[in-house]
Design a protein that fits this description.
Number of helices: 1
Number of domains: 1
Number of strands: 0
Structural class: mainly alpha
Order of helices and strands: H
């Protein structure tokens, strides 16, 4: 009985760890994309202002 509980807890911990890793990876990707977009946007504005 205790072995079953320990196994369940272990599986649960692994699932939680994997889910947390996926979520943090997605957050990192979104933050990175946001910064890249901001940089491109700033670059375009600077270029556009330079043309005027």
């Amino acid at each position: 009985m205790t072995k079953k509980i320990i196994r369940l807890l272990f599986v649960f911990a692994v699932i939680l760890f994997a889910w947390g890793s996926i979520v943090t990876w997605l957050l990192d990707v979104w933050v990175g994309m946001f910064f890249i977009l901001c940089a491109i946007f700033c670059f375009l504005i600077r270029k556009w202002k330079g043309f005027e």
